[in-house]
Inverse folding.
C-alpha cells in the first residue's frame, strides 16, 4: 500500500504546480524586463517635462511632418502589400507551376536580407546615378531621398507579412470550396468575393496589422533611402533617432510615445475585432 | 440527360490518368464508377463536371458537343468528397448560393429563393437547420446539405465524388436510401464515384468498373456478378 496519496491531476498533460509556477514567473519576468519596463520608460520620458512639454514637443512642425509622413507611408504601403501578398499567396496555393519553391524562398528574402543592404540596393538602382533613377529624375519625380523611395523601402521590408500569413491558411483550405462555387455557376470575381476572401479575411487582417506595425517602425532601409531631411523625409523612427542624438530627449521620447501608441492601437484593434467576431472566427477555423 | 464519353484521354505530365475511355450513360440512370484509388474514376467525374478538361476526345450531352463548355455553363450538380460547404455561410446561404450567382435576369427574387431553399431542406428531411453553420452539423447532415446545394441550381445531371466515404456504416446505409429516393424523385442522370463495391452494387442501376485508367466492364450489378469480363473484375467484386 502507498503511504502517500499520488498528486491529483486534472489531465495527463497537466504539469505539477511548481513547474507551472516557475514557467509563469519566468514568462512574466521576461515580459516585464523586455516589454513593460521599456514601454513605461518611453511614456515616463515623454512626460518628463510635464504635459505642456509633451504638447510643445508634438507641436513642432518637424515632429508633425514626421508623424504625417509615417502615416502616409503606412497608408500607401498597406493596400499595395495586401494586394501583392494576396496575389502571391493565390499563385502559390491555387496553381502548380515550375519554380514555385524558388518563389516561396524569394518571398522570404526580405526577412533574411538586412534592411540596410536593401536600402543601399534601392539607392544604387533608383538614385540619380542609377539607371532607373536617372530616368525618374529626368521626369521630375526623384525616387531616392523622397517619398517614393521611402515607400519602396517599406514595401520591400514588409512584403512577406501578408503572404506568410495567407499561404498556410490557403493551403489548409484547399481548392474545394472554390471549385464548388464554380460548379454552382459563379464566375471568377464572384468566387473571389464570396468564397476566397471571406475564408481568409482573418489571416489577411493579421497580415495587414503586422505589416502596419513593421511599416511604421521600419528604420534601417528607410534611413538609407530617405536622406534624413528633417521635416521632409524623416519618418517617426528616423526623427526619434535624430532628436535623441542631439540630446533633445524629451522631444525624442514624445515621438517615441506616439510611435508606441500607434502600435498599441494596432494591437487594440486586432483584439477588439477578435472579441467582436469570435463566433465567425471559430466557424472559419473549425471544419 | 444522356451523356456520351467519346475516346477521352487525360495525362498529368508522365502519369496517364485515363487511356482512351468510351462510355454512354443513358438519361435518368444511376451509375456507379467503381474502382480502386488511382483507377481514374474521379478524373472521369471531374471531366464531366468541367473541373478538368481532356487532352483528347469529346464529351456529348444529349448529342451536343460539350467538351469545351465552361464549368459554370454545364449545370452539373457536384457533391464533393469532403462536401466543400462554404464554412462562413449558413446552411440557407450555402443552398441559395447557386441561385444568387445567376445573372441578374435569370435570378429568382429573394422570396422565391427562400421558397426553393425551404423545399430543398424538406427534400433532404432537415427542415429546421437553415440558420446553422456547417461546423455545427454532423457528417451526415453536411452530406445532405451538399446534395441540396447541388440540386438548387436545377442541374442537368448529378455528380457525386465518394459521397459516403467519410461516414460511419449506419449513416451510410441511411444516406444511400436517401440518394436513391432523391434520384427517383428528380429523375436526374446521376453518376457517383466509389471504391466500395457493396455500395456500387446496392445502389446503382449500372456499374462501371475501372482500373489503371481503363474501363474494365460496364453492366448491371447482377450481370457483373454472373459474368465478370476480366480477372480484375472477378477479384475486385469478390474482395
Amino acid at each position: 500500500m502507498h503511504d502517500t496519496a499520488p498528486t491529483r491531476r486534472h489531465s495527463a498533460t497537466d504539469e505539477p504546480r511548481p513547474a507551472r509556477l516557475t514557467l509563469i514567473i519566468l514568462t512574466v519576468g521576461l515580459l516585464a524586463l523586455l516589454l513593460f519596463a521599456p514601454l513605461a520608460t518611453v511614456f515616463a520620458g515623454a512626460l518628463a517635462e510635464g504635459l505642456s512639454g509633451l504638447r510643445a514637443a508634438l507641436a513642432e512642425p518637424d515632429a508633425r511632418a514626421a508623424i504625417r509622413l509615417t502615416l502616409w507611408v503606412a497608408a500607401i504601403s498597406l493596400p499595395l502589400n495586401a494586394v501583392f501578398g494576396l496575389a502571391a499567396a493565390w499563385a502559390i496555393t491555387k496553381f502548380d507551376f515550375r519554380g514555385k519553391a524558388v518563389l516561396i524562398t524569394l518571398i522570404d528574402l526580405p526577412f533574411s536580407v538586412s534592411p540596410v543592404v536593401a536600402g543601399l540596393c534601392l539607392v544604387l538602382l533608383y538614385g540619380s546615378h542609377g539607371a532607373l533613377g536617372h530616368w525618374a529624375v529626368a521626369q521630375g519625380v526623384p525616387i531616392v531621398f523622397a517619398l517614393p523611395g521611402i515607400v519602396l523601402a517599406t514595401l520591400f521590408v514588409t512584403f512577406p507579412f501578408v503572404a506568410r500569413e495567407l499561404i498556410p491558411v490557403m493551403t489548409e483550405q484547399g481548392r474545394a470550396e472554390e471549385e464548388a462555387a464554380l460548379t454552382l455557376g459563379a464566375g471568377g470575381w464572384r468566387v473571389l468575393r464570396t468564397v476566397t476572401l471571406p475564408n481568409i479575411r482573418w489571416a489577411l487582417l493579421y497580415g495587414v496589422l503586422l505589416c502596419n506595425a513593421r511599416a511604421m517602425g521600419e528604420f534601417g532601409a528607410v534611413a538609407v533611402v530617405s536622406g534624413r531631411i528633417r521635416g521632409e523625409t524623416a519618418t517617426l523612427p528616423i526623427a526619434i533617432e535624430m532628436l535623441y542624438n542631439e540630446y533633445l530627449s524629451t522631444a525624442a521620447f514624445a515621438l517615441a510615445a506616439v510611435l508606441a501608441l500607434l502600435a498599441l492601437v494596432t494591437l487594440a484593434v486586432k483584439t477588439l475585432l477578435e472579441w467582436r467576431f469570435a463566433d465567425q472566427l471559430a466557424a472559419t477555423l473549425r471544419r | 440527360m444522356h451523356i456520351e464519353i467519346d475516346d477521352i484521354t487525360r495525362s498529368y505530365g508522365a502519369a496517364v490518368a485515363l487511356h482512351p475511355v468510351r462510355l454512354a450513360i443513358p438519361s435518368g440512370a444511376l451509375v456507379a464508377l467503381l474502382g480502386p484509388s488511382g483507377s481514374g474514376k474521379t478524373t472521369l467525374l471531374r471531366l464531366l463536371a468541367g473541373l478538368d478538361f481532356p487532352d483528347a476526345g469529346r464529351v456529348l450531352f444529349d448529342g451536343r458537343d460539350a467538351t469545351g463548355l465552361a464549368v459554370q455553363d454545364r449545370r452539373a450538380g457536384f457533391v464533393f468528397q469532403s462536401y466543400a460547404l462554404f464554412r462562413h455561410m449558413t446552411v440557407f446561404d450555402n443552398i441559395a448560393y447557386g441561385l444568387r450567382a445567376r445573372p441578374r435576369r435569370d435570378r429568382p427574387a429573394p422570396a422565391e429563393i427562400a421558397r426553393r431553399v425551404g423545399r430543398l431542406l424538406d427534400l433532404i428531411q432537415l427542415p429546421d437547420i437553415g440558420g446553422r453553420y456547417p461546423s455545427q452539423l454532423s457528417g451526415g447532415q453536411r452530406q445532405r446539405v451538399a446534395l441540396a446545394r447541388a440540386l438548387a441550381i436545377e442541374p442537368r445531371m448529378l455528380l457525386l465524388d465518394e459521397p459516403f466515404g467519410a461516414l460511419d456504416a449506419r449513416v451510410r446505409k441511411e444516406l444511400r436510401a436517401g440518394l436513391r429516393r432523391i434520384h427517383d424523385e428528380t429523375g436526374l442522370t446521376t453518376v457517383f464515384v466509389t471504391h466500395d463495391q457493396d455500395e456500387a452494387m446496392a445502389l446503382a442501376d449500372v456499374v462501371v468498373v475501372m482500373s489503371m485508367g481503363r474501363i474494365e466492364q460496364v453492366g448491371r450489378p447482377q450481370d457483373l456478378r454472373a459474368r465478370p469480363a476480366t480477372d480484375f473484375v472477378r477479384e475486385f467484386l469478390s474482395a
In short: Chain A touches chain B through 22 residues (CB under 8 Å). Chain A is about 80% helix and 0% strand. The radius of gyration of chain A is 24 Å.
